[in-house]
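User: I'm writing a short methods note and want a consistent example. For PRD domain-containing protein, I'll paste the sequence; you return only the C-alpha cells, no commentary, since I'll be parsing the reply automatically.
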Amino acid sequence: MRILKIFNNNALLVEDDDHHEKFVMGKGIGFKKKPGESVDGTMIQKVFSFQKKSVRDSLLEIYEQLPSEEIDLISDLIKEAETEFHQTYFVSLYVSLADHIHYAITRTREGIEIKNPLTWEVRKFYAKEFALSRKYVQKINQVLDVKLHEDEAAAIALHFVNARQENSLYRNTYEITHLIDDILKIVRLYYHIDYDEDSLSFQRFVTHLHYLGQRILNGNASNQIEDQFLFKQVQRKYPHASQCVEKITYYLRQSRSVTLDTDEIAYLTLHIQRLFDEIEEKKS
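Assistant:
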C-alpha cells in the first residue's frame, strides 16, 4: 500500500496495489512517513474500503480539519464501543462521529450551547448507548479541555444506534420523505440556491429533518423545557436564517398543525446557516 495522505501518526489514506483507496489505522503507522511511501502492513490494525464516493469525500473533508488529538480520541471511543456492544463499525461512523464531535466542540467554544430535543427519547429507548455516551462526553471534556453539555450524549448515542441498525428511527418513510422535500423546497426558494447533496452540511440538515419528521409523526415535536436565551442569541446572530425558519414553522402549522418549540427552531436555524455558509464559501 502507498500513502496518499497522512491525517496523523495513527490514520492514513492509502492506495492498494489495485489502485483502490482505503482508510487505514494503526498505532504509529504514519510516524515519520511521507506521502508516496509504503505502509508497513504489520502495523495496520483497521482497514476500511469506500463503498461510496460521498463517504470518501466526506472523510477527507472532515479529517483534514481535525486536530491529531481528536482523531485519536474518536478512534478510542469507537474501539471501546465495539468492545462494549460486540459490534464492528464501518468507516461511515468514523466520519459522522468525527464530524459531530468536532462541530460540537467548535460551537461550544463559540458559546453556542444546544439542548438536544431527542435526549429524553434516547435515554429511554437506547439506555446502554446513552450511558456509554455520557462517559464519552466526560472523556472528551477532560482530554480536549472543553465543556460539552451532557445533552451531547444523546446525539453521540444516536450515531452508534444508527451505525448498528441503519434507519432504525426512520419509520413512516413516505410521510417523512414528503415533509423533508417540502422543507428543502422552502429553504431553496428563500435563498435562491441549489444544494450540493454530497456536502456535509446538506447531509447533516437532512439527517436532522429525518429525526424531526419522526417526532412530528409520533406527536413528540415539542419539548417541555425551552431555552429562550439560546433562541434569542441565534435569532440575533443569524437573522436571515431565522426568517427562513419562520417560513418553515408557518408551513408546519398550516399543513400539520405542529408548533415547534424554541429549541427546535434554534437548532433548525443553525443547520440552515451552516448550509448557506458552505454554499457561499464554495462560490468564492
